Task: inverse folding
């Protein structure tokens, strides 16, 4: 009997390559496309769906689309697809709104400076981040106000009523993002504070703003706020929308960050305390870097939804990107069956480019910050 | 219970001297409650500089809570705790002062997972003591060598084994150059193979004359390294004695029962 059980390995087994069916393109197709009958069926169905939709879409977007035209005549042809010529004709309006042509260089310059600073800030491992952070958070807003609004340094004034298009969308979204993240962190920490006053003020702020729709906030800011202000004082419409959007977003951000703070094990707080780090140092060095890393998807989710929600400002009479597209959708000289559709497609693709960019960047950061620690 | 036998631990006692006059920690008539639960009752404990004290007892006996009161991770409600001449009150400045001088090692290591081993070790010296980076790194390297993992300095905690992480945690505490070290079940979360490497580091530390308070179930370590063993149950100190007397001739019924259960 004992001979059946006893066993001693005499040589260690060598490493061997996996069977061919498991590797390379064949292995991949076998595993992902034709693993079993339901899987193969799904593959065939998906292919059929693509064959059915892609040519139609291609014809509409490119094949039969009108790219160059003086007016809507070509777009009115029965087979005509998307009327891109109309979007190209109105392009300046979609980007700058009613901003005067001769002053386009001003928003352009602000955009370029902002883009350079953001690239420098978001690109890991570049030096002098401190300088560009100061430039971005202090210098850029001042530059933007001086350049965009004008009225000083010999620049003709362009009042905010004339601002519009993608410019307004980007201004509202970036102010919302830049204000809401730090304020949200402060409120999230406040909500977890042991000091009752700080704690309840934070809770009240968060719960108040989170529980009202953004449309209500914008209406209140633009219609009701002037009623409470002394006669004669006016606050710029765009500024009111900015404050409304930023505070609204702050409340959401605070709750996202709080989720991250709660996910951290108590031991991290204790270890930081035991080393003698005070509250602010332990938050700054230990707790927030980890908590924010945990909630990157949630933070970016908030940013993306904020970016798209900026189109709500059109209901208080501001012309953001979607507002300008909508305003021209019934333009007589471009009248065509797909005029409005093409405009919305354009607006949608601009939104998509920005939102997808944020999403990809956040995934890149998540991978980069992953130090292989699983709690 | 323990995989590490007494014979495995060899100790050089030449520097392990207990001061006759310098008091490291003095706890008098201390009581603590968690809500309504009276978790520590009437604690009186005087620890001289250079003492190595092992605190043993069943789970829930309050031994972890007791050492966590010494660096004020837990607040006591009655009595006095004086650490290194500083009384712990709600004064945050004094608490930070005490924490600078008292190192702590946790059961679950609590390394900072987003920082490298080197950064874990230099963070507190740089931000709390204001030591320049180069000097802090030199000190960190010195202690990482002492816990025998200098080659891991640039890795992240998640890439290390449990035993290595705990040794880093000890090095991280030592980088603050503390006068007193607290150990809260430092080997309880480790695989048997790794317990010895951590105990070796602790023995090594004891040999330098460090004042140590260890909550541990490693009775081999207690017998070889401690100069005093404290037995706690139901939030009270039931018995304390020199290790040989404690293990060979326990007095209290509860101590006898406990020892009979953990020693075989």
Result:
């Amino acid at each position: 009997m004992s001979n059946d059980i006893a066993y001693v390995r005499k040589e260690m087994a060598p490493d061997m390559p996996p069977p061919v069916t498991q590797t390379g393109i064949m292995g991949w197709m076998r595993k992902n496309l034709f693993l079993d009958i339901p899987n193969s069926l799904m593959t065939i169905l998906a292919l059929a769906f693509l064959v059915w939709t892609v040519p139609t879409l291609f014809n509409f977007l490119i094949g039969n689309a009108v790219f160059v035209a003086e007016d809507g005549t070509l777009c009115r042809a029965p087979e005509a697809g998307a009327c891109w010529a109309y979007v190209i004709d109105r392009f300046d309006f979609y980007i700058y709104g009613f901003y005067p042509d001769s002053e386009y260089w001003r928003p352009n310059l602000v955009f370029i400076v902002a883009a350079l600073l953001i690239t420098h800030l978001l690109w890991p491992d570049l030096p002098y981040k401190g300088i560009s952070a100061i430039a971005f958070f202090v210098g850029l807003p001042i530059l933007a106000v001086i350049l965009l609004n004008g009225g000083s340094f010999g620049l003709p004034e362009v009042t905010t009523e004339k601002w519009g298009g993608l410019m307004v969308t980007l201004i509202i979204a970036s102010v919302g993002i830049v204000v809401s993240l730090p304020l949200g962190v402060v409120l999230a920490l406040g909500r977890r504070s042991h000091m009752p006053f700080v704690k309840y003020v934070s809770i009240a702020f968060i719960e108040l703003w989170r529980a009202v729709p953004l449309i209500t906030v914008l209406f209140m800011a633009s219609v009701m706020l002037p009623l409470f202000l002394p006669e004669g004082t006016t606050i710029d419409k765009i500024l009111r929308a900015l404050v409304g959007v930023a505070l609204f977003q702050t409340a959401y951000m605070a709750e996202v960050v709080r989720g991250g703070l709660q996910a951290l094990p108590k031991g991290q707080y204790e270890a930081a305390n035991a080393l003698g780090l005070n509250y602010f140092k332990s938050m700054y060095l230990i707790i927030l870097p980890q908590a924010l890393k945990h909630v990157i998807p949630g933070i970016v989710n908030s940013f993306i939804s904020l970016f798209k929600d900026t189109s709500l400002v059109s209901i208080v009479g501001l012309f953001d990107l979607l507002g300008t597209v909508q305003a021209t959708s019934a333009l007589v000289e471009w009248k065509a069956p797909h005029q409005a559709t093409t405009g919305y497609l354009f607006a949608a693709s601009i939104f998509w480019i920005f939102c997808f960019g944020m999403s990809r960047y956040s995934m890149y950061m998540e991978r980069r910050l992953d130090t292989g620690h699983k709690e | 219970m323990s995989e590490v036998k007494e014979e495995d631990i060899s100790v050089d006692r030449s520097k392990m001297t207990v001061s006759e006059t310098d008091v490291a920690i003095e706890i008098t008539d201390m009581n603590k409650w968690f809500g309504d639960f009276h978790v520590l009752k009437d604690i009186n404990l005087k620890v001289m500089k250079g003492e190595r004290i092992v605190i043993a007892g069943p789970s829930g006996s309050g031994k972890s809570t007791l050492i966590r009161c010494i660096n004020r991770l837990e607040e006591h409600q009655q009595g006095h705790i004086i650490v290194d001449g500083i009384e712990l009150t709600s004064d945050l400045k004094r608490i930070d002062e005490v924490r600078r001088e008292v190192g702590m090692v946790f059961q679950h290591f609590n390394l900072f997972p987003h920082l490298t081993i080197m950064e874990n070790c230099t963070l507190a010296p740089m931000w709390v003591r204001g030591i320049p980076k180069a000097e802090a790194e030199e000190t960190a390297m010195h202690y990482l060598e002492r816990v025998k993992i200098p080659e891991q300095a640039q890795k992240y905690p998640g890439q290390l084994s449990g035993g290595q992480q705990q040794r880093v945690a000890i090095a991280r505490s030592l980088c603050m150059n503390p006068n007193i070290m607290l150990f809260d079940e430092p080997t309880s979360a480790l695989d048997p193979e790794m317990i010895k490497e951590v105990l070796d580091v602790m023995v090594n530390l004891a040999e330098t004359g460090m004042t140590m308070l260890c909550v541990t179930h490693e009775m081999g370590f207690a017998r070889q390294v401690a100069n005093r063993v404290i037995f706690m149950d139901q939030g009270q100190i039931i018995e304390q004695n020199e290790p040989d007397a404690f293990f060979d001739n326990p007095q209290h019924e509860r101590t006898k029962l406990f020892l009979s259960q953990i020693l075989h």
